[in-house]
Amino acid sequence: MIVAAICLASIVIIAILAPWLAPHDPLDMSPADRLKPPSDTYWLGSDAYGRDLLSRVLYGARISLIVGIGSALISVVVGLPLGILAGFFRGLDAVIMRVMDGLMAIPSVLLAIAIVSLISANLWTVMAAITIPEIPRIVRLVRSVVLSAREEPYVEAAVSLGSSLPTVMWRHLMPNTLAPLIVMSTYICASAILTEAILSFLGAGLGTETPTWGNIMAEGRTYFLIKPSLIFWPGIVLSICILSINLLGDAARDRLDPRLQKRGAAQ
Amino acid sequence: MFSYCLRRTLAAVPVMVVVALFVFLLLRLSPGDPAAIIAGDMATPEQLDRIRETLGLNQPIYIQFFHWSGELLRGDFGTSLMSNLPVTQLMAQRLEPTVSLALLSIALSVVVAVPMGVIAAWKHGSLIDNAIMSLSVLGFSVPVFVTGYILIKIFAIDLGWLPVQGFKRISQDGFGPFIQHAILPALMLSTIYIALIARMTRASMLDVLGEDYIRTAHAKGASEKRVLFKHALRNAGVPILEVIGTGFALMITGVVVTESVFNIPGLGRLTVDAILSRDYPVIQGLILVTSGVYVLINLAIDLSYALLDPRIRYQ
């Protein structure tokens, strides 16, 4: 758990300080230095265009973290109100949940691929494409919490005292959802980072002028037999990143809400 | 029983309608002219007209939807923009590799993961339990393509035991060559499934092992093995079945990536080719079919629940 926190913190620092840490410009091509083995100039070697692998991997951390954190935040911002509304109003519940069931039935990577293939890929469209399939998870979670919380006496008391509906929802229902939301958003963050890598790997993500761990690996595929490190370095960093976030999510779950333990195990 | 099955089956209909509506609106509501999006930057006006014509883009949007969904119901998923072949035909050609690979992976995962979960629950809190659970978290976190390339490096390149890429069909080349080519992709595809099923088996076994009838079974002198596999696993089995259904979405993602890594001519490879050439009718057909299969699998699982557990029917 502490190891996970340290790993994640270092990845965050790398992402922020990438321009100062990177020994080379990640886009700087030098045709003479194609596919060089690790050396004093290129610590991890260079790629097929003579770009420095280490610098590209360092810069790749930026995209992964922005997409991960961005998706987690946006899915909460969109999913929380929808979940509260669905949990509180019977009529809306039917409509919202049918739409969410439909969204959940579409495999998330295929949905993201479809969205990106329609709208040209940039950071925002990629993030939107990754976030939309995650929203139903938040809505379902919030709805289930609200459904049980609204039967509580203090909610009935607040309603009887004449609190307005927005007050009841915001002050009395919403706080119940915070603990499970924190846990769920860490899992969403990890899964968004993974989806981004898969999109880039399949060629449906950002172009290689923006280095991401996924597209570094995608380019490395052609040279896998001669230079497997083009896939292994970004792959290892990506795995460590996702593993740390998942472990922190597990730790948060155990700390914040023991009742969630079973639900988390089922995912 | 009959009324439950009917209600549950009918409940699947709106889900599919929402999926169809979403897929439909995605193309129509995306910014810009759908015909231009499909045709790409190099399209001539004649090509654009042809695409508008084939997609019926000149009609009002609700008529387009009814027209389009009517054709779906008749099994017409449209025509690929690249090969000019019907989408259903393209998908049928690619079905065998994907289905055989998926079934092999599920079998492999169940055979490996269920005993792992049972042992972890049995030795709850021990070193073995911790090791199995750590492996499971690792299985979740390491992306499938990284696992895939590690497997290729070890077994295909360094040891040279198995082919690096390619695929052989059971129907054409027989079972031996199929297994030889499919074992690495299946291993790669099953890592997430193994992690998922092992976790679920452990959680569900831990629930069951606390029950009175387990204590009774121990008390009447049943052997440890018999208690675990006969008394406990049988009752813990239902949630394990469920996880195979919910894991289907993960399987689809895995199939797309795996087929791309191993160059297998299945549905996943078709998806990637369709993305790269922006062949939207094919992408659309693949989404509809996989979502439909997902809904059907979960329907089948819910119905089999009702058969196994009478309490569910009356809810």
TrEMBL record, chain B:
Its main location: membrane. Residues 95-305 form the ABC transmembrane type-1 domain. The keyword Isomerase does not apply. It holds the Pfam family BPD_transp_1_N. The keyword Ribonucleoprotein does not apply. Keywords: Cell membrane, Membrane, Transmembrane, Transmembrane helix, Transport. It comes from the Bacteria. GO terms for biological process: transmembrane transport. GO terms for cellular component: plasma membrane. It is a multi-pass membrane protein. The chain crosses the membrane at residues 9-27, 99-122, 134-157, 177-196, 240-262, 282-308. It is found in: Cell membrane. Belongs to the binding-protein-dependent transport system permease family. This is Peptide ABC transporter.
